[in-house]
Design a protein that fits this description.
This protein is α/β, with parallel strands linked by helices. Helices cover 45% and strands 7% of the residues. The strands form three sheets. A five-stranded parallel sheet has the order 5-6-7-8-9, with no helix packed on it. It has a two-stranded antiparallel sheet with strand order 1-2. The protein has a two-stranded antiparallel ribbon with strand order 3-4. The longest helix is centred in the C-terminal third of the chain and has 28 residues, at 361-388.
Length: 410
């Protein structure tokens, strides 16, 4: 009997713990914590049953069978002891998700479909057919009572209007749900409705337009860097876009030559594999640049903190009017980074266009408002310069600088 007790599992011990025994010097009472009824049957006749005695009469095999039939609601038991399923297969090794999916797909394809009890017959209704509920006379009277009096002129115009004219009218009024896309665009462009497309017409797929591929960028990297170092006056715009084989050494040579160049105005480095290491060197070069107006570093691998460093470098340059750095390694900058960029942009009086995706409305609106102020200020500066340079206006050099200073104060 002791060996049988030692071989009991956790679930079997849980079954025994569900019985409570109260012993005194004279009496011994055993009760079962079961509900008064089970499936509507009274269980009071089993109140005096000695569960321990019944369990003692069971063999280990019978106790194991009983444990499989019971699912104890006890969170302290491990899941393998609570579940009645026992897997007797040997482990096949670590999980291989690809092989598992292939095995499941293979089994699904090889398993035949269950045969239908009744074959499908077209037009035959199986089961109970749904019929709409009958409408009351009160609902019919309410619907009939709703009528819009548009006047004789409008009634006559709508009655005599053709289907094409009604479609055009719906397009003008913006009723997009009343027509398909081809009808809507044909109405806006006044091309006439396509043949065979009425209210119930189906829009057919259109042949896609084939556009030629963009030619590869054949810019000579070494020659361009040499021209930047030599400060070639004819080199105003440098475009390295989509050149994948630019090494970091070449980029470092280019950035080292930028501070001494006094003619380069546009620098495009889109999709050239720019990283944080080279981007920080670019930020240092921008601070010392004298003529750079447009900088494009889109579609690279620059992190948000490095983008902040690039925007900060624009404050010292004071010549860059357009800066683009969207579509980087991190698609979301975050609130902290966006606020830092906003504060730096608001301190910059020369920046006119910023190519960055700002997610938060506060940062987006503040940046847009400040850039608009910079654009307006630049327009007034152009007009003021043209007016002061007019040969009919006699401005001395001293008066011109005083007037310009007062203008910026305003």
């Amino acid at each position: 009997m002791e060996t049988e007790t030692e071989t009991t599992t956790a679930k079997e011990s849980w079954i025994k713990k569900r019985t409570t025994t109260v012993t005194s010097s004279t009496t011994k009472t055993t009760t079962i914590s079961t509900p008064a009824k089970l499936y509507g049957k009274d269980l009071s006749e089993y109140d005096e049953v000695d569960v321990d005695a019944l369990l003692a009469q069971l063999s280990p095999e019978e106790i194991n069978i009983l444990a499989k039939e019971v699912d104890p609601d006890d969170s302290f038991l491990p899941p393998n002891e609570r579940c009645s399923y026992e897997c007797e297969k040997e482990p096949t090794g670590p999980l291989d998700r690809k092989k598992l999916i292939e095995h499941i797909n293979k089994q699904a394809l090889e398993t035949p479909d269950l045969p239908e009890n009744e074959p499908y017959v077209k037009g035959t209704v199986r089961g109970k057919k749904w019929l709409p509920p009958a409408r009351s006379e009160k609902d019919k009277e309410v619907e009939e009572g709703i009528a819009i009096d548009m006047g004789e002129e409008y009634e006559q115009a709508l009655t005599s209007a053709t289907q094409e004219e009604i479609i055009d009218l719906a397009a003008i009024l913006g009723f997009h749900s009343m027509m398909n896309q081809d009808q809507y665009h044909a109405s806006l462009l006044n091309k006439g409705q396509p043949i065979g497309l009425g209210w119930d017409g189906i829009t057919k797929s259109q042949q896609q337009k084939v556009y030629p591929m963009d030619p590869p960028n054949n810019t000579d990297i070494e020659d361009s860097i040499k021209r930047v170092k030599d400060d070639d006056p004819k080199l105003i715009e440098l475009n390295f876009n989509n050149i994948k084989n630019i090494s970091d050494e070449k980029l470092i040579q280019l950035f080292d030559a930028l501070p001494d160049n006094e003619h380069l105005e546009v620098l495009s480095l889109t999709n050239v594999g720019l990283t944080d290491k080279t981007a920080l060197l670019l930020a240092q070069a921008i601070e010392k640049s004298k003529t750079l107006r447009v900088l494009n570093v889109e579609t690279n691998f620059i992190s948000p903190p490095t983008i902040v460093a690039l925007v900060r470098s624009l404050l010292k340059a004071r010549t860059v009017e357009e800066f683009r750095a969207s579509n980087q390694r991190s698609s979301v900058l975050g609130n902290k980074i966006e606020m830092e960029i906003t504060e730096l942009v608001e301190k910059n009086s020369s920046l006119l266009r910023l190519g960055l995706h700002l997610e938060f409305n506060d940062a987006r609106h503040r940046v847009a408002a400040h850039l608009q102020r910079n654009i307006d200020r630049s327009k007034y500066c152009v007009r003021f310069t043209a007016a002061t340079n007019n040969k009919y206006l006699k401005f001395s050099e001293k008066h011109r600088w005083i007037t310009m200073f007062l203008f910026f104060l305003l």
